[in-house]
Amino acid sequence: MDTPTLSRKRKQTGTGIPFRKAAQARSHPEFVAEGLLRRLNTVFIRLNQWVKQGLPEELNPFAQMGAVANTTFIIALVTGILLLFWYSPSIHFAYNSLESLRITSFLVQLMRSLHRYSSDACMLFMVLHGLQVLMAGKFSGPRWLAWVSGVVLAGFLWLDGWLGYWLVWDQRAQLVALGSARMMDVLPVFSDPLSRSFLTNESVNSLLFFLVFFMHMLIPLGMGVALWIHIMRLNRSLFFTRKRLTWAILLSLTALSLLYPATSAPRADMLTVPDRLTIDWFYLFPLFLTERLQGGTLWLITLVVTVLVSAVPWLFQKRKSRVARVLENRCNGCAQCYQDCPYNAITMMPRSDRDEPYASIDPARCVGCGICVGSCDPAGVTFPLLEPLDVRQWIHRVLDDRPPGQKAPYLAFICAESAGANLSLNEWGESPELPGYRMLPVPCAGWVHPLMIERAVRKGAAGVLVVSCDVDPYCRKGVEWTIARLQGERKPVLRKDKIGRTPVQYVRCDRTEKAVFLSIARAFRENGTLPRPGALRRGHRWAVAAALGVTLSIVTLLPSDAPFPTVVPEHPEVIVSFKHPGQLVEQRNRSAAENEELLPHMRGAASVQRVRVPVRMRIFVDGREVLHKAYPPGGLFNDGTSLAIEKIPIPEGKHHLRIEIGDSPDPGEWNFVDQREVVLDSRTRRHVVMFDKVTGFRWY
Hints:
The chain is α+β, with helices and mostly antiparallel strands. The strands form 7 sheets. Strands 7-6-8-9 form a 4-stranded parallel beta sheet, with helices on both faces. Strands 16-11-19-20 form a 4-stranded mixed beta sheet, with no helix packed on it. Strand 3 (about 345-350) and strand 4 form a beta hairpin. It is elongated. The N and C termini lie far apart (about 100 Å).
């Protein structure tokens, strides 16, 4: 029969199910810049494929990056607890406790290095995990909670690392403290500017250092809560890596710690500007901004970035995901869909007229994967655009509607994220690239119920091919449940006696492996079997494992101790600061004559109150006035002390410095005066002058 005649027959019998709708029945929603993100996600897919060629899936860190991040976090947590046996949480002894043990105790140095590198690896894999989720489009719809809680987790992890570097109290900690103070001074938290506590080594507050230590210990508890929220909607989530990969991670971090032990920078010195310095860019990258911007600008950047990243599920989404629905009258209460749902979107509800419960799908949690469709024997779960009963009718007609003598076609169910998803198909499921097949795109291979396969075989299909995506599947458990069903290990099972000798095969091919998929499908059509994959040679496995371990170690190591462009002032600086109350003076609010001029209801008795005057300061350098300024009293009612922190850049050399402070109402009266010859010999050396009424002027 020629093609036009066949087309007319099909048109008359109405064989074509709304196939164009079926082609749209993918599980994930549409989102902005989808094409760009999916192209970027190809990098992760190809990376996974390369690792897959040499290592089994359970040893592939890129296929379980969330679990790797959790495992490295636990390593960091355990080593951090062990370090507490030797570390002294004191501003005066913290640096010495680490440096002395670095020389005398190999075990402590190993614990410290493991603590740093496992923390860096945790941040690395958390960022990679977030990027992979973003590029794969796994952030919108019901997954918004996982995305937002992941952002909170990343924020907690970074803050814990930021505070952890503070506790070393070296030059890195010095920059962390100064950057934190610059931001905190914008907020009305402390009565005195926090930056004033870091002008000299003597002024550093020991209680503040202990508070930082306490927060560093407490934040992991908050991370535990955020992690629980992050995975609460996932069924059978992989929380930690399995035993073999855990040992591989631990051994790799140990080798890295032995080859490149973690070290401290020079001791913190508030009178010195750090010059040549390396930092851990995983956690200390904000130093690039805190060294160059003011506190208000830093807060603005922080808030904008946090809001934008947290709002990704709503900013990028164009169309919500389609969700499944249960037909209560068809549900027999077997609870198989409840057990199979990867996202805990199904609840078994009691009936009023029967003992058996029925399944109820929460639209707020359903991502539209369709795995519940493949779980339901009585076809009690419907899926928008791809109804199971319509698909069964389509299978009947496609297999019945062929000319006499023509070979029966092969039937292929193709995951929307697999290599076959981009084939050009007509409404009959035919493609010129793969003749002899009738193909149906499905949201996930788990959507395919074994009864559909048995029905296709019973209607005369030459064979059935189920195609799924491979690494990092968009729908969790879809690949795993499909394999278990076809192998008879999970209900509903594919009954071997019902398919007889008709070949039924399952293949995993990502969307980047179109040529591989076409080759496999053609071989299956010709031989009824799949080509055997080549056996992994032991030497090849070790080569891939070694290359992967070395590469990840280098990626972890290099940013953890990379050069940092510090900001060194053009000239040496003299910093002058005081905390001093102005004198109290009487201030008359209103005279009686002024009262008479007011309306009766506005009049009141004349009152006198005592207020503090602003404190004035003048600074002279070599007889030339470089500063003349008044500082208002602090407090809610302007009755507190006046505060000043002034930085005066002065060229290198020997200079005469004179400082005058006045606290009286008379602008010409200077109550406190001091002067001194100072030698400014380096841009990285600060000179600080502190004044208060008790101790007077102190020169550092």
